Amino acid sequence: MSKQWATWSKATAIALAAAASCGSVMAQEKIKVGFMLPFSGTYAALGVAIENGFRMQVAEQGGKLGGREIEYFKVDDESDPAKATDNVNRLIKRDKVDVIVGTVHSGVAMAMAKAAKESGTVLIVPNAGADAVTGPMCAPNIFRSSFSNWQTAYPMGVVAAKEGKKNAMTITWKYAAGEEAVAGMKEGFEKNGGKVSKQLTLPFPNVEFQALLTEIAAAKPDAVFSFFAGAGAVKFVKDYHASGLSKTIPLYGPGFLTDGTLEAQGEAAQGMLTTLHYADELGTPRDKTFRTNYAKNYKLQPDVYAVQGYDAAQMLAVGLKAAGGDITKKDVFRTAIEKATIASPRGDFTLSKAHNPVQDIYLRKVDGKENKKISIAIKGLADPARGCRM
Ligand code: BEZ
């Protein structure tokens, strides 16, 4: 054997051994998942449901995704956009997480998307519908397992017009989610012959609705469209009912108005029509199993937020599996998620080019403690992803 060949073989053997041991070190290291969610304030229950759904999917996969165990980090974002950049940097810079899962509030999500874009950290958004996240801020490392604000509201506008409503007023919190939901509903409503006559707002998370309800009563529109969620939705639907308005003016909205809230809303929500990408008891085997397991694990009925958390973990699992557990294989990770069909409790969905679910939007009616599916308002609806260049 020549001296040169012997030196090369020895070097190759050392390199191969190092690579093998590096591979096994990677397999032993846990994937760090950072939850940035609201665990306090008006959206607290939504954050908990998302975490529950995510953890349940991981447990169903035997506690590992792509062969890697998961280590969790948590930040309560308080649904406060002013604290969002510091909070997300705690996960990125201090905890050095591999993946961020968050959040609920659109304003907070925009700061997270900016930080994820700059750092290259994978971000899976399990609720916040900010249109910009899969619009101008879209990026190869940003994915959404939920919806865009436009996507859940546009169909309600179409439905309201089909119900024969001509003149609607809107009422919502003054921040991206409310404003974009109103814009989406207006687009669907006015394209189909309706007219939005007045748009009322109040600051997030204010729940002093009385003056605005008085204004609605005086104007007597054919319908009212509103975006509220969590504890704010409970209070709004109850106040609307208590004011007597529900007897004469139907209250419509994206399904956040009545999802995860019916226990508290009781009588006040009965008969309400909403549009959303999930409904209670869809009746498919996939949904039945999900609902049974969730009720067993958490002694609670699941809602749309639990589904979105569950599907965020399914998306992460697909990417990690393809990348052999190595999230630094960014292109493999991303392409696998882009090509996947996610078997969600809501029904199968794929992702658009901008990484937002393309999904059926259901028309639901409140009956007892359930948002029952009446029909599919729009099948396979994709967000227009205005401004996304990817
Ligand atoms: C949002 O801020 O995007 C949002 C919050 C709660 C429910 C739905 C959307």
Account of the protein in words:
- This protein has 390 residues and is an alpha/beta fold.
- The chain has 12 helices and 14 strands.
- It has 2 domains: 30-147 and 281-360, Rossmann fold (3-Layer(aba) Sandwich), CATH 3.40.50.2300; 150-276, Rossmann fold (3-Layer(aba) Sandwich), CATH 3.40.50.
- The protein has helices spanning 3-28, 44-60, 84-94, 106-119, 149-162, 176-191, 210-219, 230-242, 262-265, 285-298, 304-322, 330-339, and strands spanning 31-37, 64-65, 68-76, 99-101, 122-125, 142-144, 167-173, 195-202, 223-227, 251-254, 273-276, 350-351, 357-367, 370-381.
- Helix 2 packs across helix 11, helix 5 packs parallel to helix 6 and helix 11 crosses helix 12 (330-339).
- 52% of the residues are buried.
